[in-house]
Design brief:
Muramoyl-pentapeptide Carboxypeptidase, domain 2; alpha+beta
Length: about 120
């Protein structure tokens, strides 16, 4: 993958915090770069690729969109969260999870397809 295609991001931001692996998919990063370009300000990735052995993924019945390289969590709150949510909806992200209470506020963004059956907008 050519990380130069995503000038506002680095590979390290998306490396699995458990294994160091990184299998992010170009189609996801292209859409995320478009979001960042339209947003016009830096965004912080709190979670990118997660290897299936990552503790969060290992607790699931089957690994989720992070382990497919089709998801990330963006640290944000308040007005910033609202603006990112609005852009994510406009850009057609298929999964948007919102955690805006307590510590560790973020928005999950993904491009899940079948077999992930769930609402495409939810809160934690």
């Amino acid at each position: 993958m050519n990380w130069n295609d995503y000038p506002n991001f680095s590979k390290a931001e998306f490396d699995c915090k458990h294994t160091g692996r990184n299998e992010m998919r170009p189609e996801f990063l292209k859409r995320l770069q478009e979001l960042r370009t339209r947003y016009g300000r830096p965004i912080i990735i709190s979670s990118g690729y997660r290897d299936p052995s990552h503790p969060v993924e290992a607790r699931k019945a089957s690994p989720g969109t992070h382990s497919l390289g089709l998801a990330c969590d963006v640290r944000c709150e308040g007005q910033q969260a609202y603006e990112i949510l609005k852009l994510a909806l406009e850009l057609g992200f298929t999964g948007i999870g919102i955690k805006q209470k307590g510590a560790g506020r973020f928005i999950h963004l993904d491009m899940a397809a079948h077999p992930f059956v769930r609402p495409n907008l939810w809160s934690y």
